[in-house]
Amino acid sequence: MVNIFSTVGGYMIYCPKVMPSAAGIQLAKEKYKIFPNPFKDELSAFALWPQDMAVHIKIYNSLGNCCFNTALQGLTNGCMLNLSELPAGIYLLEINNGKEIVHKKIEKK
Questions:
Q1: For a disulfide at 12, which of 36, 71, 82, 95, Cβ 3.0-4.6 Å?
Q2: Where do the domains of the chain lie, and which CATH numbers do they carry?
Q3: Is residue 73 within 8 Å of residue 79, measured between CB atoms?
Q4: What's 30's DSSP letter?
């Protein structure tokens, strides 16, 4: 298992290498999975896009301002976003792989 820690704009991103499992079958139907929702400090994101595909993640607050923005190389192995510096509230998460854009409403407690 390889763990990658990097800091982007003051936020720490943790990208674990995971082995294929039964969870992958569920992901194949959804293409992406974001959890937990609502979250406290950390949000996990998994997606079934090729590892060589750049994935952009943005989080917008209720006023439409982008409060988190990062680019990662694929999300097949998943990433854990440390969003502890964001205040509690409702946000819009955007995942863009260059071919499609996925939006999901998330809540920070």
A1: 82
A2: 3-108 (2.60.40.3080)
A3: no
A4: H
